[in-house]
Design a protein that fits this description.
The complex is a heterotrimer. Chain B has helices at 9-30, 41-56, 71-89, 104-117, 136-150, 165-174, 189-195, 203-213, 216-246, 256-262, and strands spanning 60-65, 94-98, 129-131, 154-160, 178-183, 198-201. By secondary structure, chain B is α/β, with parallel strands linked by helices. The longest helix of chain B is centred in the C-terminal third of the chain and has 31 residues, at 216-246. By secondary structure, chain C is of the alpha/beta class. The chains are: A mainly alpha, B alpha/beta, C alpha/beta. Chains A and B meet through helix 2, helix 3, helix 5 and helix 8 of A and helix 1, helix 3, helix 4, helix 5 and helix 6 of B.
Amino acid sequence: MLLLYALHRLLGPRGRRWLIALVTFVAGLFYGLEYFYPAKGNPSANFLTKWIEPVSIMLAVIGFFLVGLGVYSLCHVHGRNVAKRRPGWHNSLAFFVSMIAMLVFALWEHYLHLREPTPAVVPWPKGVYEVLFNGLFAPLQAATFSLLAFYIASAAYRAFRIRSAEAALMMGAAFIVMLGQVPVGMWLTSGIPASGPAAFFRLEKLGEWVMNWLNTPAQRGITFGIAVGALAMSLRVWLSLERGTFFSEQA
Amino acid sequence: MGTLLHANWFMTGLFGGMSAIIVASVLLAQLGRAMFIRRIPGLTGIEEAVGRATEMGKPIFFSPGLDGISIVTLQALAILSHIVRLAAERMTRIIVGICDPTVLPVAEESVRETYDSVGRADAYRPEDVRFISDQQFAYALGSVGLMTREQTATCFYFGSFFAEALILTENGRALGALQVAGCPEPTQIPFFIATCDYVVIGDEYYAASAYLTREPTLTGSLVGQDIVKAVLLALMLAGIVLVSVLGPAAHLGQNFLVDLLAQGR
Amino acid sequence: MEQRPPSDLWERLQQVPRHYIYLLLSGVIVWQLLAPIRLPILPSPPTRGVYDAIRAVPAGKLIVISTDWDASTQAETGPQTRAVLEACFQAGKPFALMNLASPMGAKLGNDIAVEVGKEYHAEYGMVWCNWGYKAGFTNVLLAMARNIPKTMGQDFYGKPVAALHMMQKVRTIRDVGLVIEITGLANMTEAWVGLIQGPYRIPFAAAYTAVMAPGYYQFLDSGQLEGMLVGAKGAAEMESLVNRPGAGTAIMSAQSWAHVLIIALIIFGNLGFVLTRAREKGRER
């Protein structure tokens, strides 16, 4: 790592580009070679398989250094807001209070080493941690996610207009799937016998048919297309064919 | 149906063949062969969107999604580079909200270099490329707060999005912003379509950089992808015929194509 | 984008302010949570697949349940987890919780297991355990296939996994009879199928949020998934199979009428749209 960094600093722009391209190629080659090189045994392994775990751990460690960068960026932005008393600085102060409180009580609870699912006496730091986690953090996340229900209701009402035959078809399929997913839909067609050819017209069966025979092939087709696109993009990045700021305009 | 921890000869040949087609197509394009790309409506809206922000004198917001450094995010950053160039030429401010901290230095570098390349290094503001949160909904709400405070006229969402997509786009719509989205995740496409003005769907996302820049490398890659898809389609048709003739692949040994894919025999 | 004010009833039908929509939706949900109209819930084939897969786990094998979800999807994945754990306890199958992608899920899943375990008088370490959150995702899967106790190290409470009574005969992935992934996150299934279900032929089932489930029917169709719980509906169906109606069943009442409301709003909006267009065409003539 240090050697690469030193080389990067010493080389000129053209040399740096070649260094980046070489490192990119070697790094990509490792995983590709590990997968494609002939392997034996059960489970199968080749000479590179034993290096998968150490390399992945190394990449994870490099990635974790950047977690600190995110925290630094947050503290920098919010710290400046508080220091300069910019409008809304109290929100930035709330960020520091909640970050420190959660950090302190989470670590304190962890190092209490409570080894039972339900201890007879709950220490007060664990109590505070439970209030912060189960009382605040988790319900706030759940509440934010639940906003989606209101947003989708207003978005669906506003956007779904029958402007064409395809739109009408889509809307029909949507109604069938929406009603087929809930007991009301099952109740609406409960008069149709549950077995026999007519059972197909029960809303829950129709909904399943739409999901299995219309949705599944479409999803597969999309997955194939996206996978091929990802392969092409991976090849371009691996072989440093990709143009853009990270490989410079003149590459 | 089994999968392989390592490739058998068939998979190696298939991947090698697909890669060779794509690389050959790229080389042909670099040698000057003209290649056609159809119009992608979602991407033609980008210039209009940047223009709208310029006319209104308000900033642009860009979100590269929730993922770390991945193929999807790299593509988003390539699109960001194009948008920053357009914005810099028109002297329009652009704010980038980052979710994953590993993307932050790459995005900063990308934006700074783009401003440099159009001779507008003075317009670059480091605080306009900012880390918001690595938590999904905290990021969504932080971005919404940012968009509301800055009264963004245009919002771009390119990258990996999940449940928070609708929170971003519905609030952007309420703000009156023109919104352009692109996401390879099929689950979020319906929400983007319901709330955004232009949407780039599935494969078009990966075609975006080729379409916007018309770089021979990228257009060649796009044509290569289409040829590969035709090859896969042919394999699928062969599989359908074999299953119809030889019976369902419930057991290995009944269908040699399944054996090839699952076991390498 | 701004809209001009509606001039008549048909245009008003198309431009109902979103605040009224939010109020209506809140009202319907609160009404059903307080005074539910209970309608029968019929288990679907994907849900039955999960239930049957649990009951079919051979004696001596473990069920591994990966609770890769957090509080944001708790409304769906919480009841799913509870219903799956009920099925495991009722069938007398030992299970281990684990978590690969969302540390919050390790605690939330554990809280549910402790609560349900009390109802079945299940002792921790004997019938169920929690391996806790393990960082590394695909590395963990690759390593646990070869040696589970070494990979897992300490459990959720800091005890060595190898020291737990129920883990005495569990060494590799071949001692696992079923893996159940409960998640609201993308790309988890692909890793499990690619690294565990596919190479080692370990039966695999899953529970997803409703919005991501459509993308996984292809795995069900190909036989890589034994069964699948889809959102709160899947949880409610599982609750009916284990005969323990809970949060999933309660949510379905509210969800039913919320769907009816959304459909009604779409119909009204389109009524206004069609009638406005017809009127404008009439004017042109």
